Amino acid sequence: MKSDIVIIGGGAAGLLAAYGAVKALPSGSRARITILEKMPRPGRKILFTGKGRCNITNMKEWNDFSRHIRTNPNFVKPAFYNFTPENMIGFLESNGLETVIERGDRAFPYSHRASDVLDTIVEAVLRSGVTLLTEREVEDIKPGFEIRCTNGETYECSKLIIATGGLSYPMTGSTGDGYRWAGFFGHQVTPCFPSLTALVPKGYKVIEKVDEEMKGHIDRGTPMTGSGEALQGAKLKNVNLTVTYDGSVTETEFGDIDFTDGGIEGPIGFQVSRKCVKTMMNGGRVSFSLDLKPGVPITELTDRVKTIWNDIKNDPRTRQAKDGRGINGKEMYRILLGKLMPWDLIPGFQAWNPDILRTTVKKTARFHSPQRRFYDVDLELLAKTLKDWKFEIIGYVGYERCVITAGGVSSDEVTAKTMESKLQQGLYFCGEVLDMDCDTGGYNLQCAFSTGYLAGQSAAKALTPQG
């Protein structure tokens, strides 16, 4: 089967490559554009973005947007200006999908359903006349762009676009196939590693040993310890996270943190994960310090903790005895924590910091009376821990659940203004298969959309007039 342009991969980049190609064809052109997608349904990874809500893009201007690209922003710049976040929103809204802009300039579908975004894109691509073939896994590519699939079908084209994604979320079809095809055409592939992923503190998971091949990799399905389960589900807002790499403090971020079944995630957890993973893979050490009260100096916080504690002790309700003995120190401590942190954090905070509440067992004065427990709270240690809650990071969740793959096809060997290979005429790359990764917040999807659209547009413009 012959096609003028074949796109391998029907994800965000591949779908927009097809649409960009159609839009660049001259009126009346009979050029055929085909997408080969190995999964039963295209764009499955889009369904996982934004926790199922799909953070479509980020509406920041280039100067601000580019600060969130962790590789070479100048490589992405021509694609960004060719197909901007405003262009992406316009494309979706012109095809019937309402959008909304939220905190941090993040764009979402008004419905908050990622499936609506995917359906809108796929329907627009199909209406444009693109042939979308699913369950077509490419097995081999021969010189001259002869493509053989595992089902025995072969395809020939004059322009080939590789949009196969990276290694993240392999259940969506991203298993690194594109790196193999890039290598076939002589391209260098920058070493890959997981980014925007959960970071695992020591004591969070039941771990016998850490993956030696991928230093620090801890599968997300690894069982959690009791302490890990106590923290799971807690969400912290407006905290400071200080990261120490190999004993030196090099990064501090302010924002939100989530404790999940994977480990430490959330916006600032993801923000630092790229460097943390790279450090651990290179044999380095990583540790975290959480400041739950960044706006309050330690001396002021210590005084506040002591004041609250005295108020609790002197409250008539504390002395009121339902059972003749009143509220004990352990219950008072829990009340104190409830005035200092979210309630859902209290079990985890207690489990990870047991030394703050000291317990002694004594006999009462009466002869043969049972022993009683007495509790004493170290208020200064509590204040110190609120300002400096330490975690040793021993691992990370790998490709099975990371958001993005860092590394990939070297951008030095791809022309930024067209996405065409510098080594093989008629070959184009776009999306996550490239060495191009960003922070969380809609930046990665926009880069996929922009590079995809430019690759398709460039391929279509390069067709012969007869195409």
What does this structure look like?
- It is a single chain.
- This protein has 467 residues and is α+β, with helices and mostly antiparallel strands.
- The chain has 3 domains: 248 residues, FAD/NAD(P)-binding domain (3-Layer(bba) Sandwich); 107 residues, Elongation Factor Tu (Ef-tu), domain 3; 89 residues, no CATH class.
- It contains 14 helices and 21 strands.
- Strand 1, helix 1 and strand 2 form a beta-alpha-beta unit.
- Helix 1 packs parallel to helix 5, helix 1 runs parallel beside helix 14 and helix 9 packs across helix 13.
- The longest helix is centred in the last third of the chain and has 19 residues.
- About 1% of the residues have low confidence.
Topology (SSEs and partners):
Elements lengths: L4 E4 L3 H13 L8 E4 L20 E2 L3 H4 L7 H10 L2 H10 L4 E4 L3 E4 L4 H14 L3 E3 L4 E5 L3 E4 L4 E3 L2 E4 L14 H8 L4 E7 L3 E3 L24 H6 L3 E11 L2 E12 L4 E2 H16 L4 E6 L6 H17 L1 H4 L9 H10 L7 H7 L4 E7 L7 E7 L1 H9 L1 E8 L7 E6 L17 E3 L13 H19 L6
Parallel strand pairs: 1-2, 1-10, 2-6, 10-21
Antiparallel strand pairs: 3-5, 4-5, 7-8, 8-9, 11-20, 12-19, 13-14, 13-16, 14-15, 16-19, 17-18
Helical content band: 25-40%
- Extract low-pLDDT stretches: 321-325
Distance, first to last CA = 15 Å
Under CATH at level 1, the class of the largest domain stands as: Alpha Beta
